[in-house]
Design brief:
There is one protein chain. The protein has helices at 2-19, 24-72, 80-87, and strands spanning 92-100, 135-139, 150-153, 159-160, 188-189. It has one domain (46-189). It is elongated and about 100 Å long. The chain has three helices and five strands. It has 195 residues and is of the alpha+beta class. Helices cover 38% and strands 11% of the residues. Strands 4-3-2-1-5 form a five-stranded antiparallel beta sheet.
Length: 195
């Protein structure tokens, strides 16, 4: 009787085993294949995301540059207060900055925005080219493997700063410093441009 019962249990086990689920080996192989695919696809998708964000940032900086020109009607450079208040009245806190060279933290001491002291041109720091730049707009975004940050000025189109910093004009150095009579630059997120 006991042998019959064991025989029935074994048959039931074989039938159920043959009809049910996956073996441990099959599950492990499936997991390995999914891991390999994810390892290839996820970095590629993230790189495309970084490229899209960089493109968006460069476009935004180009627009900010145009707004600065538009506000001044080609005759003057708007102050940061005018730029944000009139150019982007709906701006919220964010990671874009607008700095006017005449108001930079080193005014009268070599104006590190454009490497030129307009108040005393003869005193410009040796081996620096006097660019006579008027304003800079830049972001404080992390652009991953594509660059440190982006900037544009009245004399430079939107540009990406290389990861090694070889083309970094040093605008991030201004972030914690007062701007002439104004406090340190405040990050904003441009929303709707002026109408």
């Amino acid at each position: 009787m006991r042998a019959k019962k064991q025989n029935r249990v074994m048959q039931a086990f074989k039938i159920n085993h043959g009809q049910s689920g996956y073996t441990v080996l099959e599950v492990m192989v499936t997991c390995a294949v999914i891991s390999v695919i994810a390892g290839v696809v996820i970095p590629a998708v993230y790189h495309e995301y970084e490229k899209a964000r960089l493109s968006s940032c460069l476009s935004e900086l180009g627009g900010m540059r145009a707004v600065a020109y538009d506000l001044g009607n080609g005759r003057y450079i708007p102050t940061p207060e005018q730029f944000w208040g009139e150019g982007y009245p709906n701006a919220e806190e964010g990671e874009y900055y607008y700095i006017v060279d005449a108001e930079d933290a080193n005014k009268g001491h070599g104006n590190d925005l454009d490497n030129c002291d307009e108040d005393n041109p003869g005193a410009s720091i040796e081996n620096r080219t006097c660019l006579s730049m008027k304003f800079a707009v830049f972001c404080n975004h992390d652009h991953g493997s594509l660059g440190k940050y982006c900037y544009a000025t009245d004399i430079d189109q939107p540009t990406v700063v290389a990861l090694d910093g070889s083309n970094d004009p040093g605008y991030h150095d201004q972030l914690g410093l007062p701007q002439g009579e104004d406090p340190a630059p405040q990050g904003k997120e441009p929303k709707t441009k002026k109408k």
